[in-house]
Amino acid sequence: MSPTEHTPGGTPPPTTTRYDAICIGESMALVAPDPPAPLARGGTMRLDVAGAESTVASYLAQLGARVAWVSRVGEDPLGRLLRDRTAAHGVDVSHVDVDPTAPTGVFFKDPGEHTTVHYYRAGSAASRLGPELFARPAFAGCRVVHLSGITPALSASCAALVDTALTGRPLPDAVYSFDVNHRPALWSAGEAGPVLARLADRADVTFVGLDEATRLWGTRTPDEVRALLPGPRTLVVKDGAVGVTSYRAGRVTFAPAVPVDVVEPVGAGDAYAAGYLYGLLTGLTEPARLRLGHLVAGAALRIPTDVATLTDTARLLHHARTGGTP
Fold it and tell me: Which InterPro entries match (predicted)?
């Protein structure tokens, strides 16, 4: 079933319908000072949710895809918060397992001249994810499997999950999408670089920021990234406010960034991946996929939290196809 056959942002179709995409990975409760101020000052805090894969799933669902977020949370109020918030965007959360013996992960944002984050996720429920989840019958026929480089840093079983996906292709009909998403707070560039390069090179569609590629591998241009990662059928290299370059079917396509007043950059990369993947699912041209990524990322950049509400998806899709700016 095509994503265009049901209403964008609406109730997913019956479970007998195959998924357009499954997004696998951890999400956590996010605690941040409100208004923004250094954590050490204390004061009023805002409790929110954040996670790369659930963010991608949330935007895909709003655009109109039938998508499941696949994860594990604790049997606690924070786990319930994560599932409820993600489901509110139209995402199927029935494959989020509830673990009675491990907690939901939490992280704190510490605003300042250079905002930092502090993770409390060791031993989290999501760190117990493993490759056995691919045996679930509901995933048969799934069109896209989306993963990120955050997951292999969480535990040995999580690393095995990503390696199994990209090496063994347990869902043979799926396109495997991988966002490098290096998190320095989880593992150093020296430790992560070789692992993430190997995984990124095995995916069908790989997303990477030029800044993180430079940090991980010393590559300074999109062409250098492509030379390092020749394996993906599609490589998408993001360069912030400059634009995005894709390598696909022997062609190089560049899409300049769409100007936007930035409120908070967190989540924009995941929003971009969702826009691009929705374009892939619906058969948009490569330039239109890149533009849709920019437009969805622009919505994320305009808000202080991870997931924006896409109020007019038809307009976004129109501008992606025509090259216009909303």
Answer: Carb_kinase_PfkB-like, PfkB_dom, Ribokinase-like
Q: Determine phi and psi for 125, rounding to 5 degrees.
A: -60, -40
Distance, CA of 278 to CA of 299 (rounded, Å): 15
Tokens of 50: 């954040």
Give the closest residue to 208 by CA, choosing from 166, 150, 269, 291: 269
How many helices (H) does the chain have, and how many strands (E)? 9, 13
User: In this structure, what token pair is assigned to residue 177?
Assistant: 């999408």
Q: What's the pLDDT tens digit per position in 18-62?
A: 999 999 999 999 999 998 899 999 999 999 999 999 999 999 999
pLDDT at position 14 over 60? no
Higher pLDDT, 11 or 269: 269
The C-alpha atoms of residue 34 and residue 304 are separated, in whole angstroms, by 11
Q: Give the active site residue among 99, 270, 306, 312.
A: 270
Q: Kindly calculate the radius of gyration of the chain based on its CA atoms and give it in whole angstroms.
A: 18
Question: In this structure, is the dihedral angle defined by the CA atoms of residues 259, 55, 28 and 24, taken in order, positive or negative?
Answer: negative
Sequence letter at residue 162 = V
Which secondary structure element, helix H or strand E, spans residue 252, and what is its range?
strand 251-256
pLDDT averaged over every residue in the chain: 90
Domains and CATH numbers, the chain: 3-27+52-104+121-322 (3.40.1190.20)
For residue 261, count CB atoms less than 10 angstroms from its CB and return exposed for 0-12, middle for 13-18, buried for 19 or more: exposed
Sorted by sequence, the CB contacts under 8 Å of residue 220 that are 6+ apart come out as 210, 214
Scored b (16 or more CB within 10 A) or e, 134-149 reads beeebbeebbbbbbbb
C-alpha dihedral sign at 283, 289, 291, 296: positive
Q: Are 26 and 121 in contact (CB under 8 A)?
A: yes
Angstrom distance (rounded) from CA 97 to CA 93? 9
Does residue 270 have an active-site annotation? yes
